[in-house]
Design brief:
The protein is mainly alpha-helical and about 325 residues long. Helix content is about 45%, strand content about 5%. Strand 1 and strand 2 form a beta hairpin. The longest helix is centred in the middle third of the chain and has 25 residues. The chain is globular and about 50 Å long. The relative contact order is 0.18.
Length: about 325
């Protein structure tokens, strides 16, 4: 069973999200990504597309500044606070873009991005999925929805989408069928995405999550095949010793040697203790690592429309 609380489950999730957000599986190359994709949310940057207009990009920079107070990027915190909730570049511009990309070479900056992602998106997805009795696929579907739509209870945010799905079908924790509930969740989210022209392409649902759901892969176990914007992607196996190390050598994302079939991986206990500390509870056991192909982006013109979905400017709403 692949659980999002386990580093291997998170690795799978990051690669799938990156295929939709950046037309790539190489999510570790995205720490320095930054651009304005003209979606009304200012700058979009980093490994899941933090936004200057929604506040999470500011959270990343403030976390990084606490770790590295003298870093050039820290000097842009006042400007980021002023533009929060808008699409303005006032006080930012090329100097900010340069400082962001330079910071991406610093392991502390990558750690700051990891931490904000985990706190604001991964952990809430896991907690909501566990309350609903969902396995690996449902946990990923919640995470992907949070990345695109953001937290909140309005109809266009994750909380509103989840509530609407609950009204259509009971989740497993309330005695409902898991596949039927997840189909309802996809239907609601698809409708929300189509309300905004930039996100009318729902291939990240239709030829990815819906495929796995139709196949009954509720644990999100490789091999996985999917398409986003017409590009083909694959995660063929649980990992071997060639799996990449964690970003910047971050100890929270260690390389995980593979284990022969039927044998326990000796690092699982260590990984479970790490995940239990991060998420405040013991995760379900998982295993292995990933060995997917590097898939180039053949439709770069489509990537910006996917990178930041419907996150609300007021994330507390």
């Amino acid at each position: 069973m692949v659980e999002l609380a386990h580093p291997i489950g998170l690795e799978i999730a990051q690669r799938i999200v990156c295929s939709a957000e950046n037309s790539s599986l190489d999510w570790r190359a995205m720490y320095g990504y930054l651009e304005d994709i003209d979606d009304g949310r200012g700058y979009t940057g980093g490994l899941i597309g933090f936004c200057s207009g929604t506040g999470d990009l500011l959270d990343v920079v403030e976390r990084y500044a606490a770790m590295s107070p003298g870093a050039p990027l820290a000097g842009f915190i006042p400007a980021l606070r002023r533009v929060n909730g808008t699409d303005s570049h006032a006080g930012l511009g090329r100097a900010f873009e340069r400082a962001w990309r330079e910071a991406a070479t610093d392991p502390a900056f990558r750690t700051a991005q990891d931490q904000i992602r985990d706190e604001q998106y991964v952990r809430p997805a896991i907690e909501a999925a566990r309350r609903d009795g969902l396995r690996g696929l449902g946990q990923f579907m919640y995470y992907d929805a949070l990345v695109m739509h953001g937290p909140g209870d309005d109809t266009d945010s994750f909380g509103g989408i989840r509530a609407a799905a609950h009204r259509r079908h009971r989740p497993p924790s309330a005695g409902g069928d898991e596949r039927s509930y997840l189909a309802a969740f996809l239907d609601v989210r698809r409708h929300v995405m189509r309300q905004e022209e930039a996100h009318a392409d729902t291939s990240r649902l239709d030829t990815a999550q819906a495929w796995w759901l139709a196949a009954g892969n509720l644990d999100l176990e490789p091999p996985l095949r999917w398409q986003v914007y017409g590009d083909d992607y694959a995660i063929d196996t649980l990992p071997d010793r060639s799996a990449p190390a964690g970003p910047g050598g971050h100890p929270g994302r260690p390389d995980i040697p593979g284990s022969p079939a039927g044998q326990a991986n000796p690092l699982h206990g260590l990984l479970d203790r790490w995940a239990g500390g991060l998420f405040g509870r013991q995760p379900f056991p998982g295993g292995g690592s990933l060995h997917p192909p590097r898939v180039p982006a053949s439709h770069p013109e489509n990537a910006p429309a996917a990178r930041r979905g419907l996150r609300q400017a007021d994330r507390g709403s």
